[in-house]
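Exercise: predict the structure of this protein bound to EPU.
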Amino acid sequence: MSALSTLARRLEEIAAGRVFTGRSLAPLTTYRLGGAAAVLFEPASRDDLSLLTRAMRDVGLEPSHVPVLVVGRGSNMVVSDGGFDGLAVRMGQGLAWIEGVAGSPRVEAGAATSMPLLANWAARRALSGLEFTVGIPGSVGGGVRMNAGAHAGCIADTLVSAEVYDVDSGAISTRPASSLQLGYRHSSLGDREIVVAATFELTPDDQAAIKARMESYRRHRADTQPGALQNAGSTFKNPPGDSAGRLVDAAGLKGHRVGGAAVSELHANFFVAGDDATAQDVFDLVQDVQRRVKERFGVELEPEVRFVGPFVPATDEVTSR
Ligand code: EPU
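Solution:
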């Protein structure tokens, strides 16, 4: 039995959450693409999650040697057709919770909480600061890790701290936002530091104004972006002072296709997978568009979407990120 199967067995024994071996990750991502994870663990609670390090040690695995992937709501990743040869973690419903802090405009949320749900919770209490998340199909944990943003707002604007589980040491600690190196779609957190919960400092505001902002953001999305399924939002980060969508569009690439993946006709920074697409098609399309935009405008676009597992680059040499 492989070391990862032994780990799965141990997790089944000691954890309350569900454990799967060889489970496809495709249904857990918005792209609906890609292969299986060697092990998929759905911790039922914070305590359950923290059993992970112990389970690894129990079966003689050095935690830092086990590849870990935090799936979140899978809205910003492409899992390779070959899958992920490691331990994938997807937070269970017990980690989806929202709690106001009595007498203060602070709110705490579990990592599995959907960001739009949190935005609506805050709006109902006339608290402003998270309206921009209303159309982001991700989780609070993923939002913190990526410093998710839209409409000139981002998570860093209101994040006070995040509770983080360190897979390698097994410790859970509260990290002030200032220690997370939050930048444009960036934080210092990797897959070995799993966000468990986050605290936000919101601002009391007129409820009608909050709702109006949310409605205008929703409308902007509906008018300018394809729906959340079979894509992962913006493919590239915007280069300084410009827009990746504008550049891809200006290069004449709307509708450009590789296999079953195509540049959206609605928004050129969204790459949409048809029913016949493979994850490799999306990867090839990203590389092709990157090359064409570089040739045309001299701009090196940097992917915002994460590629997980092995992909075959244009040079035919196998890479894994
Ligand atoms: N544009 C084009 N052609 C296109 C798409 C856009 O010319 O096909 C032009 C637009 O006309 C506009 C400019 O590019 O002048 C910017 O477009 P848009 O307002 O759609 O915003 P964006 O910069 O493409 C960013 C975020 C989105 C977020 C929107 C709204 C990034 C990489 N993307 O998109 O975030 O929803 O602003 O605030 O920062 C995401 O990160 O996944 C995401 C969807």
